């Protein structure tokens, strides 16, 4: 059932895109007022009534299928939590755990804590005034 509603939803979305692109812009009448030509495909009254009603119908269908798909999605996963599933994450064998006392980190000796620039033989570059 969900697959059929998804197909209707996609078709309604594509049809809605097409109908919106077919409608004339609000500036088309201004071009005709200043001597330009006005192209009316749907008659002298224009496409306002037909395409407007078609857009409203497709938008209603799109919203209805959206709500229906959202309802079906919540019903399929109702009462199931990620925490309730009990999926354990496997850790590598060499990874230390919190209960392992041998996993304590030894402090770094003072000689190794020096900056890399001094131990590699690099000298600081003086900055000119």
Index terms:
single chain; 129 residues; mainly alpha; 0% strand
Brief summary of the model shown:
This protein has about 130 residues and is mainly alpha-helical. It has helices at about 1-20, 30-35, 50-75, 80-85, 115-120.
Describe the fold and architecture.
- The chain is built from five helices and no strands.
- Helix content is 50%, strand content 0%.
- With 129 residues, the chain is an all-alpha fold.
- It starts with a helix and ends in a 10-residue tail after the last helix.
- The mean pLDDT is 74.
Question: Layout of SSEs?
Answer:
Elements: H1 2-22, H2 28-33, H3 48-76, H4 82-85, H5 116-119
Strand content: under 5%
Helical fraction equals 40-55%
Largest sheet: none
What number is the mean pLDDT? 74
Q: Tally the beta strands.
A: 0
N- to C-terminal separation? 77 Å
H/E element order: HHHHH
Report the structural category: mainly alpha
Please state the CA-atom Rg, rounded to the nearest Å.
34 Å
Globally, the shape reads flat
DSSP summary: helix tally = 5
Low-pLDDT regions: none
Subcellular location: Cell membrane
Family: Belongs to the SecG family.
Pfam families: SecG
Organism: Magnetofaba australis IT-1
